[in-house]
Specification:
- By secondary structure, the protein is of the alpha/beta class.
- The protein has helices spanning 88-93, 131-143, 154-158, 172-178, 195-198, 203-212, 235-244, 278-287, 290-297, 374-378, and strands at residues 13-15, 25-29, 32-37, 119-123, 145-152, 189-194, 218-222, 248-252, 301-304, 312-315, 321-326, 338-344, 356-362, 366-371, 383-389.
- It has a 7-stranded antiparallel beta sheet with strand order 9-15-12-13-14-11-10. A 5-stranded parallel beta sheet has the order 6-5-4-7-8. Strands 1-3-2 form a 3-stranded antiparallel beta sheet.
- The longest helix is centred in the middle third of the chain and has 13 residues, at 131-143.
Length: 391
């Protein structure tokens, strides 16, 4: 007998079936195949799925990334909507949704801009929100009102191990606001589409969904973007399909990293992408190279902590006042074990205040922030910009 449980409490059925029966996933042991069926939990009537922030996102996402390739290493096969999937048979068992007979997801259109500009979406993963992603937003802003569109719940649907975001959910609006200068004064919106609702769409159906359901007039994607069922669609196909449907499509070249990899030994070989990518940003943080991460992001990496979880405070080892947090208090990816120089962000209500320099010490279990005084620490709202690794 096989028993399975889901951490979310969803009932899981395990049963022996005919090998021809479609399923969500398959594993083999000897000559017997076991199929797992995951009944969807009961949901209330769906509200608007166009999310101004990332609340709908349940982290997500290994799409072929626009303006920066982000293929997960060590995985095999290509799954739905361009995702890299570790279970090749799982993807092939799903049925493709055809344009004619598919029930369209009950999603809401993207609201029109106050200026009346046409709605233009930039497609990608937007995990790190790096310089390549900013170029997508810039291109979209030249065509109309820019919106970032990505897919939520991909990790849950495909069974990937969860990982911390590069950018904390609570910090994404701030980052988008900093892109206004590059976007002609326009702050890009952000839309999260449930991956489960579009995962089986072929390329033509997905583009039709953007046009007819989200009311998109223009599309921007990176030159390595893949989309549609089993990643069947390329950037070139996107341009062709979009043109046939009367949409303006712009394909953006990848942004070079600009790093001299011959002089760098901090990253694993697989992370040396020639272009700016979330993979490379994550590898820099994992290696403690916050300086390179900042160059790729176009800003210092901001580590966000849940300030309510501080469990110790007192005098720092080298003076000042220290607050200590468990690593589980981190709301986004923290760097490798080590000591870092950082700056506390200036509060919006006191824009003339001087930035406060702090020291951040990361261990396997704790993150300790040392500020010059207790007053500085009392004003700490949980975010700290990491500027350099202490020498």
């Amino acid at each position: 007998r096989t028993r399975a449980a889901c951490c979310s409490g969803t009932r899981v059925e395990a049963r022996l079936v005919d090998a021809r029966e479609p399923s969500c996933g398959v594993s083999r042991r000897g000559s017997v195949r076991f199929y797992l069926s995951f009944p969807p939990p009961a949901r209330a009537a769906r509200g608007p799925v166009v999310a101004p922030a990332r609340e709908a996102r349940g982290r997500v996402a290994r799409l072929g990334e626009a303006a920066g390739s982000d293929r997960s290493a060590g995985r095999r096969g290509v799954g739905d909507m361009g995702a890299v999937c570790g279970t090749p048979n799982a993807a092939s068992a799903d049925a493709e949704v055809n344009v004619a007979d598919a029930a369209r997801p009950a999603l809401s259109p993207i609201p029109k801009s106050d200026a009346g500009d046409k709605t233009v979406v930039a497609l990608g993963k937007f995990d790190a929100m790096h310089r390549g992603h900013r170029e997508l937003a810039r291109a979209a802003s030249k065509m109309g009102a820019p919106h970032l569109v990505s897919f939520g719940g991909m990790a849950e649907v495909l069974g990937w191990a969860p990982k911390l975001n590069v950018v904390a959910e609570t910090d994404r609006a701030r980052v988008r606001a900093t892109w206004a200068e590059a976007c002609g004064g326009k702050v890009p919106g952000e839309v999260v589409v449930p991956f489960a609702d579009v995962r089986r769409m072929p390329p033509e159906a997905f583009v039709a969904f953007l046009k007819d359901t989200l009311h998109v007039s223009g599309i921007v994607a990176g030159s390595d973007y893949r989309f549609g069922f089993k990643a069947a669609g390329t950037a070139e196909a996107l341009a062709q399909i979009g043109e046939a449907m009367g949409l303006d499509v712009t394909i953006v070249d990848l942004v070079p990293s600009g790093e001299d990899d011959a002089k760098s030994e901090t990253l694993e070989t697989k992370a040396y992408t020639a272009q700016v990518s979330s993979t490379r940003v994550r590898a820099c943080l994992a290696a403690g190279d916050v300086e390179q991460a900042a160059r790729l992001l176009g800003r210092p990496h901001r580590l966000v902590l849940d300030a309510s979880q501080a469990y110790a405070s007192g005098d720092g080892a080298s003076g000042g006042e220290t607050a200590t947090y468990p690593t589980r208090a981190a709301l986004n990816q923290y760097p490798a074990v080590g000591t870092y120089e950082g700056v506390l962000p200036v509060p919006e209500e006191t824009p003339d205040a001087k930035p406060v320099r702090v020291t951040v010490r990361v261990t396997e279990t704790e993150v300790a922030v040392t500020a010059p005084s207790a007053a500085d620490l009392a004003a700490f709202a949980g975010g700290v910009d990491l500027t350099a690794r202490a020498r």
